[in-house]
Each structure stands twice: as C-alpha cells, then as structure tokens.
Automatic annotation (TrEMBL):
Protein name as annotated: Aminopyrimidine aminohydrolase
Gene Ontology cellular-component terms listed: cytosol
Lineage: Bacteria, Bacillati, Bacillota, Bacilli, Lactobacillales
Domain Thiaminase-2/PQQC span(s) in chain numbering: 12-215
Membrane spanning stretches: none
Catalytic EC class: hydrolase
InterPro entries: Haem_Oase-like_multi-hlx (IPR016084), Thiaminase-2/PQQC (IPR004305), Thiaminase_II (IPR027574), Thiamine_Salvage_TenA (IPR050967)
CDD domains to which the protein is assigned, alphabetical: TenA_C_BsTenA-like
Length: 223
C-alpha cells in the first residue's frame, strides 16, 4: 500500500499550493491584512475549532486501543488548551466585543467545513476522521513556517505565526501524519481512495475558509 500522506499531498497539490498564494495569507506575510478581516477570521476560527475538537472526541470514542484513544484525546486537549487560548487572547486584545460575538454567524464555508468534520466523526472510522482533520494540522504548520520567513511588522500576526511555526506544533503534526499513515496502511484500494478524497475536500475547505474571511462573505446571493 502506498504512503498515505505522500499520496494525499500529491492528489491535492494544486489546491495545497493555492492556500499559500491566497490574498489572506499573502497579506499576513507582508503585514497589510486589514485588522477588521483578521478579527472576523478569529471569530470564525473559534467556531471552527469547536467542530475540530468534537471530531477528535468522536475519534477517541471509536478508538480500538487505549493508545489510539489517548492520541486523539490529546489532540482534543491541545485544541482547546492551545488554539482556543490563542483565539481567546486575540478576542481580548483586539477588543472583540460581546456584541460582535452575539452577532456572529458562521460563513458558508466555515459552516460546511465544520459539518464535513462532524459528519466524518459521526459516520466514519478513525482513519476517515483523521483524513478530514489532517489538512488543518499539516497546512497550518507549513504556512506557519512560510510566514515565519517574512515576519510582518504586526504583533498580532506574529503571535499567530509563532503558534503554528513552533516546535511543539510541528511535533504534533508529525505524530498525526505518522498516525494517518498507520491507519491507512491496511485499507482496501477503494477505502484508501475515499480517504484521499476526504483529505482533498478538507484542503479545499481550508482555501475557502481564507476566502470567506478575506472577502467577508455571508449568506447573501450576488446578482
């Protein structure tokens, strides 16, 4: 059986590369991103992370060994202790008000991406769940290291970059990639292809998550 991570990246390469070239990421790199857009992104991402964590919990529930349950459980803990704390600090320091939070509605793709993960969590096995989660880990790590080479003159953006380019996050990503390869190793060709498709869908949603945030999309239809 081929290596899952290598195959999944190859199948998603065009979408993967598009994430680095998105105007949101490029504006982060040079520090020109409008702070209003970043605030909106932070609120959307805090919403997304609830589903990201829920999918970990469902994978842990379905784990066939205590070691696997611990691995997914640790992912859940890392999500809420580290990433939600980061977003909590942004909410405070960017002066995002309770009124802003009360008025929040998830963007179309934030909503779809969250449901993509939750549906996998409810209906699929550990391998499929992790295939939907892995692009968030892996892509954010690579974008974090990419942005660390640029260092915009903005303390908020550098705080975000520091999190996703950190050694602890890279180690977490490495472990998840190794686990994904292990869980995919005994899959049939048809099952393996389904995992690749789930991974590619998440890479697409990662791109569209930037897109919704950058263009501040809501549920209106343009005529």
């Amino acid at each position: 059986m081929p290596n899952f991570c290598q195959e999944a990246l190859a199948a998603s390469q065009k979408l993967w590369d598009a994430n680095f070239n998105h105007p949101f990421v490029q504006a982060l790199a040079d520090g020109s991103l409008d702070l209003k857009i970043f605030k909106g992104y932070v609120i959307q991402d805090a919403y997304y992370l609830q589903s990201f964590g829920a999918a970990h919990a469902l994978a842990a529930y379905k784990a066939t060994t205590s070691d696997l349950a611990i691995r997914f459980g640790q992912g859940l803990v890392d999500t809420f202790q580290s990433e939600l704390e980061l977003h909590g600090s942004f909410i405070k320091d960017l002066e995002i008000s309770q009124t802003d939070l009360d008025a929040f509605t998830p963007s179309p793709n934030a909503y779809a991406y969250s449901n993509h993960m939750r549906l996998a969590g409810h209906d699929q096995d550990m391998a499929f769940i992790l295939a939907t989660l892995l692009p968030c880990y892996w892509l954010y790590e690579e974008i974090g290291h990419y942005l660390a080479e640029h260092r915009p003159d903005n303390p908020f953006y550098n705080r975000w970059i520091d999190t996703y380019s950190s050694d602890w996050f890279s180690e977490n990503v490495r472990q998840m990639k190794d686990l994904m390869d292990q869980l995919a190793a005994d899959k049939s060709p048809e099952e393996f292809a389904a995992l690749i498709h789930a991974f590619k869908q998440s890479v697409y949603y990662e791109y569209m998550f930037w897109d919704d945030a950058y263009y501040q999309r809501d549920w209106a239809v343009e005529e």
